[in-house]
Amino acid sequence: MSSNKPRVLIIEDSPALAEVYRSYLRGEPYQVKHVGDGRSGMAELEKDPPEALLLDLKLPDMDGMEILKHIHDRQIPTSVVIITGHASVDVAIDAMRYGAFDFIEKPFSAKRVKVTLRNAVDRQNLNTLVERIRDDFQRDHYHGFIGSSLALQAVYRIIDSAAPSKATVFITGESGSGKEVCAEAIHRQSTRRDKPFIPLNCGAIPRDLMESEIFGHVRGAFTGASRDREGAAEMADGGTLFLDEIGEMDLDLQTKLLRFVQTGTFQRVGSTQLIKVDVRFICATNRDPELEVAEGRFREDLFYRLHVIPIHIPSLRERVDDILMLANHFLRKFAAEEHKAFREFAPEVEAVFMDYEWPGNIRQLQNVLRNVVVLYDAEQVTVDMLPPPLNGIAKRGAAPLATPKLPRPAELGPQGIRPLHVVEKEAIERAIEFCEGNIPRAAALLEVSPSTIYRKRQAWQTEGA
């Protein structure tokens, strides 16, 4: 047999049935191997996982569900097709929960098993490709960022592409979402990483002092200017100048900044001498820059000078998959700083965190956890430790309250069972309805990742298009 053929392992205690399955697959492009008990099957899976597994649930030495759970827990890369003569709703739901690809009931036709195996092998090949891409591109830590959500992966890739150039970057995003972290990441990923990174918050400095903060001043330029002083532009020479909340800058200063961006030269306040520097500009705002231009609060020519490479930082509610990763990071960090024992969150707290909208984004999450760590000391964060408004959410019952009602066997037709993909879809849709459209909570109920539900819903929409 050609070694590049997909491999199918059959775990079936009946030699006669195993031979029937082999006969069904003759002429198919597979390498087929059969073992008659669970221990032998587990050994084969550990040694060389096949692309697909035909798994009988009734084995002489163990329940086949144990093998499925083992595959799930160890993340063994194989697509599992359950074969059984003892079907039930509970078995179907358990099989779905532990990642079974399909569920077929004895007796079944040659066509049924061929189609199912073909789809299972295709799915596993796709998973392998996705995992390879993920290994290459998916990161959960990146120059100060913490998170592996798709929204954040897109930001990482833009930074990778933009950092080596001198092009100006314009960062948008809500307050507390990580715009300065993004600017620092660009600097650290660039060839200027060994030169200064100078951040300046335009919203935190009085307007009459902003020009001096950017360009510096000479002695006697204004009352209190007792000596010459370098501004941020000079300090950033050779490196990166980050102008945060640039929308707060008044129009007169925007004109001088435009000239600086265009020419690379400026004058200190009170001086006529031109100073030339080599600076990479990064700016950020929590406002809608195009609306600011349309309403006359931001110069259009400056906007187009700065808006060369736009990067939007997603809000925390747009990257729900990252919430618990961030929360655990900050909990460990603050506990170490405060010499506290905190190590984990109660499940109810995790549910509250996933349910909350986080209008203050990462900064708010940090403040909540700092509050808990300073005021309490325990190994586990519990709901009674949460500050407002999260304690109110906990009292209203953000944690999952009950399992969504599934169809009774009598509702499923004369066979008492339906295809796994139908049961799976109904379970997901009922969970979403039960959680009033909150997909992270539905995912917590079903004990799957929210991204799994998003992906499946997208697939259903595509199939129905």
Question: What report would you give on this structure?
Answer:
This is Sigma-54-dependent Fis family transcriptional regulator. GO terms for molecular function: ATP binding; sequence-specific DNA binding. Pfam families: AAA_lid_14, HTH_8, Response_reg, Sigma54_activat. One of its GO terms (biological process) is phosphorelay signal transduction system. The chain has 465 residues and is of the alpha/beta class. It contains 19 helices and 16 strands. It folds into four domains: 130 residues, Response regulator (Rossmann fold, 3-Layer(aba) Sandwich); 174 residues, P-loop containing nucleotide triphosphate hydrolases (Rossmann fold, 3-Layer(aba) Sandwich); 80 residues, Helicase, Ruva Protein, domain 3; 56 residues, Orthogonal Bundle (Arc Repressor Mutant, subunit A). Helix content is 47%, strand content 14%. The strands form five sheets. A five-stranded parallel beta sheet has the order 2-1-3-4-5, sandwiched between helices. The chain has a five-stranded parallel beta sheet with strand order 9-10-13-8-14. α3 links the parallel β3 and β4. α13 packs parallel to α15.
Instruction: Output the strand order for the largest sheet.
Output: 2-1-3-4-5
Strand share of the residues? 5-15%
CATH architecture of the largest domain: 3-Layer(aba) Sandwich
Q: Main sheet?
A: 5 strands, parallel
Q: Any low-confidence stretches, pLDDT <50, length ≥5?
A: 398-412
* CATH C-level category of the largest domain: Alpha Beta
Mean pLDDT: 86
Derived from helix and strand composition plus strand pairing, the structural class reads alpha/beta
Helix count equals 19
What's the Cα radius of gyration? 30 Å
Count of the separate structural domains: 4
Cα-to-Cα separation, first versus last residue: 41 Å
Query: Which bin fits the share of residues in helices?
Result: 40-55%
Number of DSSP-assigned strands: 16
User: For this structure, what is the CATH homologous superfamily of the largest domain?
Assistant: P-loop containing nucleotide triphosphate hydrolases
Modified residues (4-aspartylphosphate): 56
GO biological process, one term: phosphorelay signal transduction system
Domain Sigma-54 factor interaction: 145-374
Keywords: ATP-binding, DNA-binding, Nucleotide-binding, Phosphoprotein, Transcription, Transcription regulation, Two-component regulatory system
